[in-house]
Structure formats: C-alpha cells, structure tokens
C-alpha cells in the first residue's frame, strides 16, 4: 500500500524553460563580463551552492570582485533578476500539476520534496503555491546533503514516517535520482512531461523505469 509520494522539483513539478531564464549568460551580460570568464567562475561555485556552503549572493560577489566590477548596486540587480526568474517558473506549471497534487491530498497520501537546489531556489520554493502541499521538504542547500546520496532519501523517509516500499518517487532522472530512489527501496517513476520537449524520448528515457507523459499518470501507481 502506497502511503507517500516523493517528488523532485525542477523539470518535474516545475520547469525553468517555459519562462525567460536568468542563467550565467544573462548575468554575465548584465555584469559586463565576458561570458566564458563569468561561466568558469560561476560554475566553479555550483558544488558549494548546492550543498549550502555558499549563497547566491556570496558567489556573485566573488565573481564580480574577481572581475573588478563589484558594486552593491550591481550585485543587488543580479540577485533581484535571478530570484524573479526563479519565481516566474511557478507561474508556468503543467496544467495537471495542481489537479494531481489535489487528488493525492484528497486520498490522504503524504507528499514530500527532495531537491538539489541553491539558496535562492530554496527561498522561492518556500514562498511558492506548491509549498503548502508538502508534508516533508528536503533541500540539499539546507541539509548539506544532495542526491544521489542515500542519506537524503533516508532523511525524507524518517520525516514522513513511512517505509521505502510504501513510497513512490517521481523525478525527471537527473543526478541519478531514480537509481538512488530505487536503491533505497522505493518505486521510481520518470517524469517525462517537461523533458520530452527538449529531446526525443528514446534519448532521454531511462532503462528500467516507467515513463510518465503527464502528471496525472502518477495516480494509478499510488491509489
């Protein structure tokens, strides 16, 4: 009997590609820094940002100072635009996301989130319309643990107070999350509704995992 459904966030519940993005290239342009130079410095901070050892603000300040273009005004401009882009993602949900979550709630299933994310993403997740649906939230930058580390899955199970075999995990498949969820004892499903627009299904479907074309297709696995 399934008692809980655990979700990934990006490219599962939300996508970053239905609204304008604000990634390294866009930040570099606003900062007046050569794109390759900016990306090299920015991407080098990703492991620490994911693990909560460095905030977005701290990382951007480092990049700007190393390029001798730091000012508080410029920093705050980049921060504001980055957070705005992250918030905008929640305005462009797949139309079945809310009905799917509502159905799970009405059937008394517990809902959890496990996401590798940065400090600014954690902030907007907690502000979002989706956050009230979660009974348990596990964010890498807050726990200093990231997928596919088994510890973050175990932490989630403990928070939900359920056994692994009582859970369904759903994610797009990044960070070896499906393999890790299955290794932890959960039923793992691949969320294809966002990523199928970026490549052919044959190129992105993972062997050995059921593929879902739409969010409501989760329900038969749970109810």
The value of Rg in angstroms is 18 Å
| Overall 3D shape | elongated
Fraction in beta strands: 5-15%
**CATH 4th-level superfamily of the largest domain:** HAD superfamily/HAD-like
**What is the rounded distance between the termini?**
8 Å
Largest sheet features: 6 strands, parallel
Assign a percent range to the helix content. 40-55%
Q: What is the total domain count?
A: 2
Classified by CATH, the class of the largest domain is: Alpha Beta
Order of helical and strand elements:
EHHHHHHEHEHHEHEHEH
**Number of distinct beta strands:** 6
Major beta sheet, strand line-up: 3-2-1-4-5-6
Give the low-confidence spans.
none
Global structural class: alpha/beta
Give the mean pLDDT.
Answer: 97
Could you describe the 3D structure shown?
There is one protein chain. The chain has 223 residues and is an alpha/beta fold. It has two domains: 4-15 and 92-222, HAD superfamily/HAD-like (Rossmann fold); 24-89. 45% of the residues lie in helices and 12% in strands. It is built from twelve helices and six strands. Strand 2 (110-115), helix 7 (119-127) and strand 3 form a beta-alpha-beta unit. The longest helix is centred in the middle third of the chain and has 17 residues, at 72-88. It is elongated, with a radius of gyration of 18 Å. The N and C termini lie close together (8 Å).
Brief description of this entry?
It is elongated and about 60 Å long.
């Amino acid at each position: 009997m399934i008692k809980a459904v655990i979700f990934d966030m990006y490219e599962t519940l939300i996508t970053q590609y239905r609204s304008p993005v604000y990634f390294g290239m866009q930040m570099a342009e606003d900062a007046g820094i050569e794109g390759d130079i900016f990306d090299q410095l920015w991407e080098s901070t990703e492991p620490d940002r994911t693990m909560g050892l460095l905030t977005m603000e701290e990382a951007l300040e480092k990049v700007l100072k190393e390029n001798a273009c730091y000012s508080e005004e410029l920093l705050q401009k980049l921060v504001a635009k980055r957070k705005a882009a992250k918030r905008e993602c929640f305005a462009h949900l797949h139309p079945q996301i809310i009905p799917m979550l509502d159905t799970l709630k009405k059937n008394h299933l517990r809902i959890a989130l496990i996401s590798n994310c940065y400090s600014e993403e954690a902030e907007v997740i907690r502000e979002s319309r989706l956050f009230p649906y979660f009974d348990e939230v596990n964010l890498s930058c807050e726990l200093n643990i990231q997928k596919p580390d088994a510890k973050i899955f175990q932490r989630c199970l403990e928070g939900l107070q359920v056994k692994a075999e009582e859970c369904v995990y759903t994610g797009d498949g990044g960070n070896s999350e499906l393999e890790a969820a299955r290794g932890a004892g959960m039923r793992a499903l691949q969320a294809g509704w966002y990523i199928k627009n970026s490549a052919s299904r044959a190129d992105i479907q993972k062997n050995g995992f059921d593929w879902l074309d739409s969010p409501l297709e989760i329900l038969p696995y749970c109810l």
